[in-house]
Amino acid sequence: MRTKLRSSPPFESSVVRHKIGSIAIQTQRLFLDNRGIGLDHVGRRSLITTSFRLSLRRFAYHYVVTSLFLRRDCPPTHNNMAQANALAVPMVPPIPPPRPLNYVDHYDRMIDVFNGTYSSFLAKFGPESDDQPAALRDSVLAAENNIPKVFGVFQSDPTPRVSFIHRPTKFAPSLTGATTWDNEIFGFLGDLQAGNQVNLIKWPEDSFRRTIMLRVPNVDTMDAMWAAADANTVMLGPFAGNAPNTSEIRARFLCPIPQRYVRLGLSRHMTPRIFWTDIVGQVIADGAQNDCSVLVNFGRMICTYGPTAANGGRTYPMNKPLVSPVPDQVLGDRKWQWVTLDLPALLGRDHTSFEAAVLQQTAVFHQAFQQQHTDAAAERAAARAPPRPFPMSFLKLLHKSIACVVPLWMPICLPSTTPWPISSVKMPLPRCPVLLTLVPASRTPPLCRP
């Protein structure tokens, strides 16, 4: 007797024919319609008998597909089910690095939401944007701390220098009573120092106000001037109105620092020359001069003296003095709350590398015991399972015509401590050809017999 299988497109019946010589003695047709899935037998006299019929709902919830490791003509065994269960065991997570203990690492580990392109972020802080200083300040205060709120500021006293101030925060009033600091805006100057101390400053008034127009060298010209300048040169200029390779620009007193360049200057004070060579120089080296043009122009402004004063002295158009308050107990406590909110590891809420390794090994042992329990449950379920819950011809036919049930969305059994649980995770059946076996759920009698 010869058996031929013919698969068909989705939602069309698939046929298996049994022949002796050239005479067809029996035809089995797998069907899928709005009533369900089943198997019909067509004898030599065209007498149709239905072996079984399952509704799609019962088929989905009482039977699971295990096609990755199982042969289509054998029930599940301990070995192949252990292999299938191994895929469901999650990988042991690696030991996480210790949480940051300073703001440089804290900002460095943040996800760069701008993906290295900062033009849209910097544009509203440019001098030609329509955003007013008060509106910019309020938007910075109201924004969440998912990106570093770090700004460059220039001070001329006692010597010209550039510093990074960050994390502007308004002192929220307390219900316990009013304080002298209520609704004041504070920020941090630089990074943590010895003893986990950070310099607290009052956020500059009109911090985003625009400066006067100033004639400054072009980028290439400024590079050449700094290269040729004496080591003791602090700033360049001033430049006359007809000076070649110069242009008139302006900026705001505070300039946001893109996340990529925060690490370069947060923990130090820089002279204008160092700021140009280390910060702006890195921007140019990255090919981001146009993308970070607001930051580049800020650097050009802080490196250039303003017009000479009437008494012949130097002027600093970008100067924005910073004031450090003398904190009392209330302000000191609030400052420490702000710091530990960003750096909880300072409170000891972190694991050492040794403790993390112990926790990791404990998770490994737990998963090993869990795997043994799962394997034993799978072996017991395999021992109770009937050898062939479906006719062999049905399995062969379903294997050849699995494309007809591709549109179905069925719960897939995921191994766990309970044998053959029904998970709420849904995924489509794979397209043929696959090796397929339909296995009844644990303690559920087969819905049909051959």
Task: Summarize the structure in words.
This protein is of the alpha+beta class. It folds into 2 domains: 2-90 and 366-440, no CATH class; 103-347, no CATH class. The chain contains 11 helices and 16 strands. The protein has helices spanning 56-62, 78-88, 103-108, 119-123, 133-142, 219-228, 272-285, 293-302, 329-342, 353-384, 392-400; strands at 2-6, 14-20, 23-33, 36-42, 48-54, 63-65, 150-155, 161-170, 185-193, 197-202, 214-217, 246-249, 255-256, 409-411, 426-428, 438-440. It has a 5-stranded antiparallel beta sheet. A hairpin with a 5-residue loop joins β7 and β8 (161-170). α7 (272-285) packs antiparallel against α8. It is elongated and about 100 Å long.
Gist of the model:
It contains eleven helices and 16 strands. It has 450 residues and is α+β, with helices and mostly antiparallel strands.
Strand order of the largest sheet: 1-2-3-4-5
Task: Give a short account of the largest sheet.
Answer: 5 strands, antiparallel
Number of structural units classed as domains: 2
Which residues form runs of ≥5 with pLDDT under 50?
1-14, 44-52, 56-78, 84-90, 401-450
Please report the total strand number as a whole number: 16
Order of helices and strands: EEEEEHEHHHHEEEEEHEEHHHHHEEE
Residues in helices, as a percent range: 25-40%
Give the overall shape. Answer: elongated
Instruction: Supply Rg.
Output: 37 Å
Descriptors:
single chain, 450 residues, five-stranded antiparallel beta sheet, 20% strand, disordered C terminus
Q: Mind sketching the topology for me?
A:
Layout lengths: L1 E5 L7 E7 L2 E11 L2 E7 L5 E7 L1 H7 E3 L12 H11 L14 H6 L10 H5 L9 H10 L7 E6 L5 E10 L14 E9 L3 E6 L11 E4 L1 H10 L17 E4 L5 E2 L15 H14 L7 H10 L26 H14 L10 H32 L7 H9 L8 E3 L14 E3 L9 E3 L10
Helix pairs in contact: 2-10, 7-8
